[in-house]
């Protein structure tokens, strides 16, 4: 494989020295970019874009043409796995993702197949291979999946939910069924991420978008335990390089110590955590990724720069920090503000790496 021209993102995840703090943005390929909207219109709809490797590659690379980002992230969706399990994913205008079939009983769960990455999710693997080829060593490529708990909520609710009523009812009323579903999802996600790694992903992130909706006890049993199972089953070296793993639980700031024991190289932080406090709590166990409030990007460049400076100072000297937003960039952000953010990270962080 082609040698990496810029590997500071991977080096920071492994707590190796870097010249400046690396930066990327969750949802960096997305609706805030006019070129993304044009490609999506060409594809016809969101899933058609995801399932076309050439167009998925095109939108993955678009932010890198605009900004000096330190990583690319595969353009896909967390719900490709439940879709490949036969639930029939579709998108309702204004309502987000929906499934034609829902999972409500042990019989429903037992009927679910574990998808084969190349056969059932081949379009994702083809996208990874295409992106790696087109990147040509420019920056590393991040692969990703949703966490078992997050995927389970969509499968049980039938789509997005504000209160996770049905998922939590199953968790408390029928924990055996929920554990069976989460175990099947952990196997599926492990296989899916290993497929991405074999296809060329150089780091992987597990998005636990809804782990923060759980109680402390339920989080440990029904979310973190299954993410740990995935981490234990992942390919950790490929093409002569270590493959770092990032765990990101939105709303997980209360549980950083136990997350740091899960075996991943890095933890993603949302914006409700102080990164200096988080670093003190986890010590040298893991690198940290984050964690500017995405809404800061609505402010003027001077205010963005000031907040970047504050977060860098809170983390302090040394490596082990990947700068990111605390959640995905939102569609209404001015692309010039995203550019000011990335520029500020590189410019202001050099003093912390001398």
Automatic annotation (TrEMBL):
GO molecular function: uroporphyrinogen decarboxylase activity
Enzyme class, first EC level, given as a word: lyase
EC assignment: 4.1.1.37
Lyase keyword on record: yes
Main localization (coarse): cytoplasm
UniProt-recorded name of the protein: Uroporphyrinogen decarboxylase
Xref: InterPro entries: UROD/MetE-like_sf, Uroporphyrinogen_deCO2ase_HemE, Uroporphyrinogen_deCOase
Pathway(s) where this gene product acts: Porphyrin-containing compound metabolism; protoporphyrin-IX biosynthesis; coproporphyrinogen-III from 5-aminolevulinate: step 4/4
GO BP annotation list: protoporphyrinogen IX biosynthetic process from glutamate
Residues of the site described as Transition state stabilizer: 77
Subunit structure comment from the entry: Homodimer.
Catalyses which reaction(s): uroporphyrinogen III + 4 H(+) = coproporphyrinogen III + 4 CO2
Keyword Transcription among UniProt keywords: no
Function (record text): Catalyzes the decarboxylation of four acetate groups of uroporphyrinogen-III to yield coproporphyrinogen-III.
Compartmental location: Cytoplasm
PROSITE patterns, per database record: UROD_1, UROD_2
A Gene Ontology cellular-component term: cytosol
